[in-house]
Design goal:
The structure holds 2 protein chains of 2 kinds.
Chain A lengths: L1 E4 L3 E5 L4 E9 L2 E9 L6 E6 L3 E5 L2 E6 L4 E6 L8 E9 L6 E3 L3 E6 L1
Parallel strand pairs in A: 2-11
Antiparallel strand pairs in A: 1-3, 3-8, 4-5, 4-9, 6-7, 7-8, 9-10, 9-11
Chain B lengths: L3 E4 L2 E4 L4 E8 L5 E7 L6 E7 L2 E5 L6 E7 L2 E7 L7 E8 L7 E2 L3 E5 L1
Parallel strand pairs in B: 2-11
Antiparallel strand pairs in B: 1-3, 3-8, 4-5, 4-9, 5-6, 7-8, 9-10, 9-11
Classes of the chains: A mainly beta, B mainly beta.
């Protein structure tokens, strides 16, 4: 089975840095994705990790530790438009393209 | 073209109706997905097609019937749905096994 956990809600200030954590327990791990989803819209891809370490892409970075079953998404220089739900998703081994989403973190950016 | 297009955007149907949701992509992706998303919940996988063949069915009730007529199209046929099936239905596609998935804007379905 699988279990993917994230904090339900977070609040941060415009211009600040925020870290959103994701822990997972899964039988057969083959990569972790982060998606952003604004209310009423489709999820959009942010980052992908399959090896341990940090992947940086502009204001967004994502970190993975496979031994700890842990990932985080780091958002720098927060903007009001970053207020959204952030979803981590685990890809499973065994083929078939199975992607399971975590519970999602609702981020609110305030002035 | 990096879009996944879903139609219709909104659908209201009765419990005795038959309707279909459509999804189209022209990115050459060979994997296509249907997800169901309830309010304030993450997307839940329903079906995966790889190379036009059904590879995953997450124990979805038979009132949902997927179809992949060709590599660009994915349909979800709906029949005898229940009010609890009301949700946002998302289609996604990816280049191959496990690559990032691109999502469509979804169909907001209401069953009355």
């Amino acid at each position: 089975g699988q279990n993917i956990d994230q904090p339900t809600e977070m609040t941060a200030t415009e211009g600040a840095i925020v870290q959103i954590n994701c822990t997972y327990q899964t039988s057969g791990f083959n990569g972790l994705f982060w998606y952003q989803q604004h209310a009423g819209e489709a999820p959009t891809f942010l980052s992908y990790n399959v090896l341990d370490g940090l992947e940086e892409k502009g204001r967004f970075s994502s970190f993975l530790s496979r031994s700890k079953g842990y990932s985080y998404l780091l958002l720098k220089e927060l903007q009001m438009k970053d207020s959204a739900s952030y979803l981590c998703a685990v890809r499973h081994t065994g083929g078939g393209n199975k992607l399971t989403f975590g519970t999602g973190t609702q981020l609110k950016v305030e002035l | 073209d990096t879009e996944v297009t879903q139609t219709p955007k909104h659908l209201v149907m009765g419990m005795t109706n038959k309707k279909s949701l459509k999804c189209e992509q022209h990115m050459g992706h060979r994997a296509m997905y249907w997800y169901k998303q309830k309010a304030k919940k993450p997307p839940e996988l329903m079906f995966v097609y790889s190379y036009e063949k059904l590879s995953i069915n997450e124990s979805v009730p038979s009132r949902f019937s997927p179809e992949c007529p060709n590599s660009s199209l994915l349909n979800l046929h709906l029949h005898a749905l229940q009010p609890e099936d009301s949700a946002l239905y998302l289609c996604a596609s990816s280049q191959d096994r496990g690559q990032e998935a691109f999502f469509g804007q979804g169909t907001r379905l209401t069953v009355v």
